[in-house]
């Protein structure tokens, strides 16, 4: 009788552990979904502000076209091409804002100070949102590699989460503008 009780207790504890691990994995997947939604929102915000700025008549036609096309491509990119399109938008922003003259041109335009701060904030938030997403992906992948998760198929049929890899280096001139303005755009 004692052996039966001990066996039941051990099976119960194993069941609790497996249930807890499956719940943890589920929470990590929910965290990935939330982080991806936040990343998508920041990428969309950056592209929208860039498109708005490109059509404001602040830049020369070539710079406006480069920014507009890169932002438009990033907004419309399919999932499998999104990382490349977002990287190209980052590169376009760095090319146009290679020096402080373009930032000053934006600031001098009507409503330009607010637009420059919005763009700076959007450009700064993208790497943070991407980092949160990729950290959640890393944690879920690490848990999915554990033997217990694999042996008992606790991940079910869910696909392994993928990190979002893109070039998100901000333009130096926008960073300099934010530093000169006391970093005002990053705290919105």
Helix proportion: over 70%
Question: What order do the SSEs take from the amino end to the carboxyl end, as H and E?
Answer: HHHHHHH
Percentage of residues in strands: under 5%
List the quaternary state of the chains: single chain
* Largest β-sheet summary: none
Helix count, per DSSP? 7
> What shape does the CA trace take?
elongated
In short:
The chain is mainly alpha-helical and 188 residues long. Helix content is 74%, strand content 0%. It has helices at residues 2-54, 61-76, 82-96, 100-108, 112-144, 147-151, 172-180.
Structure characterization notes:
With 188 residues, this protein is mainly α. The chain has one domain (2-187). It has helices spanning 2-54, 61-76, 82-96, 100-108, 112-144, 147-151, 172-180. Helix 1 runs antiparallel to helix 2 (61-76), helix 2 (61-76) runs antiparallel to helix 3 and helix 4 (100-108) crosses helix 7. The longest helix has 53 residues, at 2-54. The protein starts with a helix and ends in an 8-residue tail after the last helix. This is Membrane protein.
Write the layout of secondary structure elements.
Elements: H1 2-54, H2 61-76, H3 82-96, H4 100-108, H5 112-144, H6 147-151, H7 172-180
Helix pairs in contact: 1-2, 1-5, 2-3, 4-5, 4-7, 5-7
């Amino acid at each position: 009788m004692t052996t039966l009780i001990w066996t039941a207790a051990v099976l119960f504890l194993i069941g609790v552990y497996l249930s807890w691990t499956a719940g943890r994995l589920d929470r990590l997947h929910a965290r990935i979904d939330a982080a991806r939604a936040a990343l998508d929102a920041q990428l969309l915000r950056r592209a929208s502000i860039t498109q708005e700025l490109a059509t404001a008549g602040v830049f020369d036609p070539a710079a406006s076209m480069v920014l507009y096309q890169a932002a438009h491509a990033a907004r419309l990119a399919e999932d499998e091409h999104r990382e490349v399109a977002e990287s190209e938008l980052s590169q376009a922003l760095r090319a146009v804002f290679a020096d402080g003259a373009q930032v000053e041109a934006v600031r001098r335009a009507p409503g330009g100070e607010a637009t420059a701060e919005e763009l700076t904030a959007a450009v700064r938030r993208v790497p943070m949102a991407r980092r949160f997403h990729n950290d959640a992906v890393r944690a879920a992948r690490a848990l999915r590699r554990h033997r217990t998760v694999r042996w008992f198929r606790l991940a079910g049929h869910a696909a392994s989460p993928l990190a979002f890899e893109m070039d998100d280096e901000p333009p130096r001139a926008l960073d300099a503008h934010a530093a000169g303005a006391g970093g005002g755009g990053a705290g919105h």
